[in-house]
Design brief:
Protein name: Bark storage protein A-like
Radius of gyration: 24 Å
Pfam families: PNP_UDP_1
CATH superfamily: Nucleoside phosphorylase domain
CATH architecture: 3-Layer(aba) Sandwich
Bound molecules: 2-acetamido-2-deoxy-beta-D-glucopyranose
Number of domains: 1
Structural class: alpha/beta
GO molecular function, one term: catalytic activity
């Protein structure tokens, strides 16, 4: 109908042409503006100097929120650069320094996927980054994991990409969640019907766009991380001690969504359907953004709760203990990267 009007009404047609021209001009202006921002940005020289300072390139260390950042500061391992200790870009503070002798830029991204993705993109665009180490706290969907354990993810998926189907639609080929299966006291139909889990588009340099569900972690980095298996993790917080010593657990699958998951039925569904052990709100965005840019990444997530609405162990809140264990693993890993690059350089 709209195109009919366009064809039959010369005046409207002309107006549309004009709009197209205006849009094109506006787009060109935007492109120029962004080019100018890049080279004439007030912090451009600062960023250049930071990049020249590192002997090789930096490791980007990313966490999402204040408890996780506080856990890093409490270790005392981050030594800020005397020259330029930090630079603020897009409202985030990029802290420049060293951890165990390795050049590191650490940044608190903010919570959830968009913040995490933006932050990693800024890191790789602005700085000379050789890889991204991500740590944080997480919920567990795997009953064999204990609070305080640190999961090293092998794969992570975005579990919020759904094809929400019509009532009584036929079953598809991809994994589905049937709302009716969760009715109480008994299963029956439900107007929310079924959701089919779908993949995400992954853009990467020099490759066509791929549809992916699982985002794998760089195998070389996983093999370095396997050396952390005997790391001693924190078991007590003030006067409270966990019943057993926390461990590093390898080979886990994680899932990310912009959802704080605290529901036993859905958490069990994720474990039973996908073998997902760790649930969080950022990891997949960090891994996908790193892969898009051809940069390796790794995820260490400390279990702070069971994601199931049961708060058996939350006296006191164990988030800071989980964050402390995750940061311990991340920092040891950075130390191993430093040793490895010394070996590689000789
Ligand atoms: C659940 O966690 C345990 C470690 O406590 C691990 O051995 C097991 O492989 C995990 N299950 C899955 C399906 O990943
Ligand atoms: C961890 O400890 C076990 C048992 O003492 C030992 O066999 C293994 O080699 C150690 N692993 C690493 C990476 O140090
Ligand atoms: C989950 O893990 C089990 C045991 O390792 C395996 O048999 C099963 O195929 C896995 N399921 C999925 C959906 O990957």
């Amino acid at each position: 109908m709209y195109s009919f009007k366009l064809k039959c009404n010369g005046q409207l047609h002309k107006m549309m042409d004009l709009k197209v021209v205006v849009v094109v001009v506006a787009l060109m202006a935007q492109v120029q503006l962004s080019v100018q921002l890049r080279f004439n940005h007030p912090l451009h020289g600062v960023v250049d100097r930071i990049n020249q300072k590192a002997k090789g390139s930096y490791i980007g260390l990313v966490m999402a929120y204040s408890t996780e950042e506080a856990a890093l500061q409490a270790t005392g391992h981050f030594v800020p650069s005397l020259d330029i200790p930090w630079v603020d870009l897009a409202g985030r503070r990029f802290n420049i320094g060293k951890i165990k002798g390795v050049d590191v830029i650490y940044v608190k991204s903010g919570e959830e996927m968009l913040n995490a993705g933006i932050t990693v993109q800024i890191l790789v665009d602005a700085f000379d980054i050789k890889g991204i180490v991500h740590y944080g706290i997480a919920g567990s969907a795997n009953a064999s994991l204990s609070i305080g354990d640190v999961g090293v993810l092998n794969d992570v998926a975005f579990t919020g990409s759904w094809n929400w189907k019509e009532f009584k639609a036929e079953e598809g080929t991809l994994p589905e969640l049937k709302f009716g299966a969760f009715n109480v006291p008994e299963n029956c139909q439900n107007l929310l019907a079924n959701i089919e889990f779908t993949s995400q588009q992954l853009f990467s340099v020099g490759k066509p766009v791929e549809d992916v569900f699982w985002q794998p972690i760089e195998p070389k980095w996983l093999s370095i991380a396997s050396q952390l298996q005997n790391l001693t993790l924190q078991q007590c917080l003030k006067t409270y001690c966990l019943p057993k010593a926390p461990q590093i657990v390898y080979g886990l699958r994680g899932s990310t969504d912009n959802i704080f998951l605290d529901n036993e039925a859905y958490r069990d569904f994720l474990f039973n359907q996908f073998n997902i052990s760790i649930v969080d709100e950022e990891s997949v965005a960090i891994v996908a953004t790193s892969r898009t840019n051809g940069v390796p990444s790794i995820v260490f997530r400390g279990v702070s709760d069971s994601a199931s609405g049961e708060n058996k162990l939350s006296e006191p809140s164990l988030s800071s203990l989980a964050a402390a264990n995750a940061v311990t693993a991340a920092l040891e890993f950075i130390g191993l990267l430093g040793q490895k690059s010394m070996v590689d350089d000789h």
